Amino acid sequence: MVLTLLAGLLRVTPAHAEQPVAADRSHVVAAWQKGGPQVRSAAEAALLGSDEQVSAFLAGGWRQAQRLDERDSLASVIGNGGPALRAKAQAALDADAAGDQSAIATFLQSGWQGPSDIDVRVPVNQLMSAGGEQVKQAAQAVLDSGDTQALREFLESGRQA
To answer: How far apart are CA 141 and CA 107, in angstroms?
Structure first.
């Protein structure tokens, strides 16, 4: 999100400019408003600093901060997710360590859904195995639906069926 915002806003100063153009702090303010904690911190430091610090932030400092925010989000998933989600998040972290700089962002954008869906199906199956006839029928019906939201609702309230 911040990447898209800033990438389209960066300007190149012509080599023949006689006087340096003051850095456009509005782009840094936008990053501060929309970014995660690391981006906000880096943007704040740039805003409180010189034009050179603002330019350095716009030229790439925000990318490093964005990657740190993504790693923090991934760490949260690893700490709080189910087994399939944790495994996929760890795989993204390992891929990042091996040099795939898009692995974490890809996981956070779309790679988490499949493992999250698996993690929702497991407890429904467990309830179906341990429950009475009505719970088994309700669990089987929600599993057959393939609707992840219905699975989540079943876990939250429907198992009393």
So the answer is: 30
Round to the nearest angstrom and report the end-to-end CA distance of the chain: 42
Query: What span, in angstroms and rounded, lies between the C-alpha atoms of 82 and 125?
Result: 15
**Number of Cα atoms under 13 Å in the Cβ half of residue 133:** 0
Total-model pTM? 0.66
CB atoms within 10 A of CB 54: 22
Phi, psi of 116 (to 5 degrees): -65, -40
Over residues 59-98, the pLDDT tens digits come to: 989 999 999 999 999 999 888 889 999 999 999 999 999 9
Q: Which residues contact 147 (CB under 8 A, 6 or more apart)?
A: none
Spell out the domain ranges in the chain.
2-81, 117-160
DSSP for 59-111 reads: IIIHHHHHHHHHHHHHHHHHHHS-HHHHHHHHHHHHHHHTT-TTHHHHIIIII
Q: How many residues does the chain have?
A: 161
